[in-house]
Amino acid sequence: MRRTPVSGNLGSPRVRRLVASAVTLAAAMGLAACGTSGPSTSSSAKGLTMWALNDQTILKESVDAYNKDHSDAKITLRLFANDDYKQKLRVAFGANQAPDIFFSWGGGALNDYVKAGKVDALTTSQVNSDRYTPSVMQSATFDGKVYGVPANGLAPVVLYYNKKVLADAGVEAPKTYDDLLAAVKKLKAKDVVPLSLAANSKWPTLMYLEYLLDRTGGAEKFTKIASGDSAAWQDPSVTKANQYLQDLAKAGAFGDNASSVNYDQGASTALLYTGKAAMEVMGTWEYANIAKAAPDFLKKGDLGYSAFPALTDGSGDPKNIVGNPSNFLSLNASSKNKADALTYLKDYVLNDSQVDAYLAAGSVPPVNGLESKLAAVKSSTDKEWLTFVYDLVDKAPGFQLSWDQALPSDQADPLLTNTDKSFLRQIPPAEFGTNMSKAAS
Amino acid sequence: MAAPALLLFGLFGLVPLGGVVVLSLTRWDGLGSIGWEGIGNWSSVLTDGATWQALGLTVKVMLVSWLVQTPIALALGVFQAPRGRLRALFAVLFFLPLLLSAVAIGLTWQALLDPSFGIGATPGLHWLAKPLLGSPDLALYTVIFVIAWQFIPFHALLYQAGIRQIPTALYEAAALDGAGPVSRFRHITLPQLKYTMVTSSTLMLVGSLTYFDLIFVLSGGNGGPGDSTRVLPLAMYITGFQAHDMGRASAVATLLVVFGLGLSMLTTRLSGFTRMDSQQEGM
Question: How many whole angstroms from its chain centre is CA B71?
Fold first, then answer.
């Protein structure tokens, strides 16, 4: 039962960051080591380098396809573990040893590189960016210019539930926050954990705050924060979102042990499919994790999913979603092989066969007009899931990038720490905004 | 003879140290160009409550670790010292934790302490199904326990070696005088182990300043829950490699060096280690 969840082809952006980074701390501490092990862009006259994250099987297939067609200018793909990768990339750019094409999360982290002049803007004609989902492209668009093409599936955060556990407790999947609170009571009486949460990893807790703020005050509240307005953290709706989170925790929605559960160890996923927990709020990559860890659970049709509950008195659109729109591939501004890199980005990233590969892996790529392809998916369980995700994103007026990715990197840690403190009720709801406002200014 | 050592120490010890001090006076995000900051990093680090909290936690880990590890390590050392096949076997078993990497230990204990699927799920052990790593009150002590589990074997080994060096003539003479095991331990073993204890304590105390990997893994990378296990080295790492504020991180690093130097000087001074007296006076 205990297993490390594998992000598989979904390429979940934040899975296993801890293990991976811990194992490679030595590398992170030794700047010199990073500098020498990074391939130099000038190592061969013709030939490109590309860095991405582990588990990007489908991405690797696209590189293989490109290399087959371009034996004179092959791409050397290097795959890294999560946090190790972030640090390695940063050091490599600092030392002018960065790859021609690199993989990132978009948002504030990519903007760091853009502001430092390390990334080339891509025009629509260069990479045909109009064919990608517009709300997704926002994460890689700065000052009206596009700095990356999406490189894997959509990863909005949704509410998963165990149909059998809910039915046993006589509970319907919650549509509103009040439904959720009512369900918590009934589920607690049945001695199951209402919401499985890996609070030890902190970012899963943040998903609640992201949704609760969006539902309370609408998407523009965080847009204002992300634009650098530190006072916007003190908006009453931020406090209210924290209040809702603390109310849930107080009501026992997350059980007694959430703060010991680590996502990387797969425990929060296991709680859901073993029926020890009724629901879980998590990114769409969880579907592939469940499919791998408990295929029977999926086959029996016990897994349910829906959008995050609405707030009856909130002013945000309940159709809004948060999560990770996608990961992106960007072009190093000092690359010597730009023409070849652009060929790859335009013709091989998320092309027709790649789209098929992602769909077959249970992941929806951020490409417009997938209806006919979705209709052709064979497995009915998968089809139902893929259609759900596609419709969710398609109908969403806003798709907000996870806060820890959207904000500049120096705010990510105060954000996660304060989220944790708010969840543990170590600070009153209003203090979250005060602390963040301080950290952001 | 000292020249090569001095050269190596200068190259790999003093030069980087100087670099860190210089870096602590600059503003650098690890990506762009380096800018001069002056004492700005220092004043912000020293006036930040989080720094002092991290330092306080570091001191707490250090003192509690010493209090927990020293008696257990001493007892194990005393137990392992006499020769015997069974004792040798035990000694090997006790020694195992030291052979594992901190990351492996961290991941293993994290799995073991998981309230839903760890030891707490075993019938009869349900009382252990508590958020030991997830409660802000318990997390630090859980971390100290795991640290002790990892390092006690090493210190037990030190004590074992120390005890084996005590001349048996001392014990024989004491036995002739009618001293029992307890009094032999108090009046011979303990005083003879004085310098072993100083060595072990210095290693323990100064070593506590570097506890990082284990806490990093056990706390989910943030020194959590909240910031309840964020010791100074971890705060340095987070500032430098997650917030990309190399200047501030260097100031914290310098602070750690100063603290560590002061501590090791204090322990040697207080224990009279520097006087280098003979350990076997009157022999």
Answer: 15
Strands A48-53 and A101-104: parallel
| CB-CB contact of B126 with B120 (8 Å) | yes
Terminal-residue alpha carbon distance, chain B: 32
In this prediction, the residues of chain B whose per-residue pLDDT falls under 50 are 282-283
Q: For chain A, what is the radius of gyration of the CA atoms?
A: 21
Question: What distance in Å separates residue A326's CA from the closest CA in chain B?
Answer: 21
In this prediction, residue B242 carries a pLDDT of: 83
Helix A409-423 with A236-250: angle, nearest 10 deg: 40
pLDDT, position A192: 94
> Which residue, among B189, B195, B197, B182, has the nearest Cα to B164 in the 3D structure?
B189
Question: Would you state the structure tokens that stand for residue A373, as one six-digit string?
Answer: 């392809």
Q: Do A417 and B224 touch (CB under 8 A)?
A: yes
Please report, for residues A46, A47, A56, B201, the alpha-carbon distance to residue A74 in angstroms, rounded to integers and kept in the order given.
Answer: 8, 5, 18, 57
Residue B125 token pair: 């052990």
Average model confidence (pLDDT) across chain B: 88
For the stretch A49-102, pLDDT in tens is: 999 987 788 899 999 999 999 988 899 999 987 767 888 898 888 888 899 999
CA–CA separation, A145 vs A139, rounded Å? 11
CB contact under 8 A, B227 and A112: no
Calculate the CA B91 to chain-centre distance. 21
| Cβ separation B225–A91 shorter than 8 A | no
CA separation for the pair B34, B12 (Å, rounded): 23
The alpha carbon torsion through A46, A51, A55, A56 (nearest 10 deg) reads -60
Is the CB of B221 inside 8 Å of chain A's CB atoms?
yes
How far B265 CA lies from chain A's nearest CA (Å)? 27
Burial class, A89, CB count within 10 angstroms (exposed 0-12 / middle 13-18 / buried 19+): buried
**Rounded percentage of chain B residues whose pLDDT exceeds 90:** 42
Q: Which of A18, A206, A246, A260 to mutate to test the interface with B (most CBs of B within 10 A)?
A: A260
Q: Which helix (H) or strand (E) holds A146?
A: strand A145-146
A204: pLDDT confidence band, cut at 50, 70 and 90? very high
- What is the C-alpha to C-alpha distance for residues B147 and B206, in angstroms, rounded to an integer? 14
d(CA A145, CA A138): 10
Between B46 and A9, the more confident residue is B46
**Distance between CA atoms of residues B194 and B184, nearest Å:** 15
Looking at residue A300, the DSSP 8-state letter turns out to be T
Instruction: Name chain A contacts of B103, Cβ cutoff 8 Å.
Output: 22-23, 25
DSSP3 helix / strand / coil % (chain B, rounded to 5) = 70, 0, 25
B128–A contact, CB cutoff 8 A = no
The whole-angstrom distance between A441's CA and the closest CA on chain B is 14
Among the partner residues B116, B225, B241, nearest to A259 by beta-carbon distance:
B225
Contact A18 B220 (CB under 8 A): yes
Summarised one tens digit per residue, pLDDT across range A257-287 is 898 888 877 889 999 999 999 999 999 989 9
pTM > 0.95: no
8 A C-beta contact, residue A423 and residue A247: no
> Two tokens at B12?
């790999």
Q: For chain B, how big is the Rg over CA atoms in Å?
A: 23
